[in-house]
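Model it.
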Amino acid sequence: MNWRIGMKRVLAIMFILVLIPAVAYSQDQFGKFNLFGGIAMPRGDFADDDMEDEDSGLAKTGFGIGINHTRELTSPELTWMSSVTLLINGYDLDEDEFGEDVDVEMGRWMNIPVMTGLRYETSISPTMKIYGFGQAGFNFAKAPNVEVKGEVYY
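Modeled.
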């Protein structure tokens, strides 16, 4: 499967996600399901673009989509929350560093965090609520494939 996505396509997807209402949801006796999307902004070593540092992720800003499920526990304020998110980030590699006669094909970073935990919500006024949550889980990650074709001179 080829995960290569052009920048115009990424911008179009992000524009569409902005036009969709902030949260699309369905609720019944099994809890609430929330569908969401947004920008995936890498931080720390994951975003570091220093090719000399072996911990650098060279990740560019990307996008993410996901789904949350919340189910009421002992009261409407306390809920169990689980989520799955797909995050896709580009790979920031300077192709000019390899020379003119070199063709570089780069893939994308793909992360799928699967999280679960508790959420607490309370009203602070008739028109305003605050909430907090804590989750733990696993992140399934796929590093980008980078293929360099041609003669490379350093």
